Amino acid sequence: MIRIFQYIPEIDAFIVDPTYRYIADELGLSEWHEAVWIGRYFALDNDFGEHWMDNWDQRDERAAQAQALGIAYEEIMVINPERFTNNQDGPCHTNEQRKKFWTDVLTSLQLSLDLIILEAQQMNEQRKQHNRQDYLPDLAQRIEKVKLRLRS
Predict the structure, then answer these.
(1) Rounded distance between C-alpha atoms, residue 53 and residue 75, angstroms
(2) Burial 121-151 (b: 16+ CB within 10 A, else e)
(3) Is the CB of residue 27 less than 8 Å from the CB of residue 116?
């Protein structure tokens, strides 16, 4: 199982775990961010989910603290609990409850390498059809490279 995020309590924010970042970059899962595809699952499997961590104003508030910790501003991901409600039949919980829930979920989030590889293969096949410049013809070799590195 691959840990996806690291929670940084000093700034109440997340960064992508370095091991997952390596895998995502190697397998072509990094769009504008390594966790875009994961956000789509959390947002009813649609493209709205790619924006689940677009909380720039909250990042701005933490920029100096993050820099003091050696964390680049663009790496910070902040949970905005209002992004996790659509106000159609609720909300059922307060912002504080949603924030705590999603902090707990993302702190403990691990995904199998099999799922990550399946996602990479699907994305790569889509790129082959619609976005040839980002297609990875050597994806199978990259997968083996990742597996070998994780074993060692």
Answers:
(1) 11
(2) bebbeebeeeeeeebbeebeebbeebeeeee
(3) yes
Pairwise CA distance, residues 32 & 50, whole Å: 9
Instruction: Please write the tens of the pLDDT for every residue from 108-148.
Output: 999 999 999 999 999 999 999 987 888 999 999 999 999 99
Q: Report residue 77: phi and psi, to 5°.
A: -125, 125
Give the tens place of pLDDT for each residue, 55-82. 888 889 999 999 999 999 889 999 888 8
Please report, for residues 1, 43, 57, 117, 136, the alpha-carbon distance to residue 26 in angstroms, rounded to integers and kept in the order given.
Answer: 17, 25, 30, 11, 10
- At 131 the pLDDT is 79
Q: pTM here?
A: 0.88
Question: How far apart, in whole angstroms, are the C-alpha atoms of residue 136 and residue 127?
Answer: 8
Task: Give the span between the Cα atoms of 31 and 33, in whole angstroms.
Answer: 5
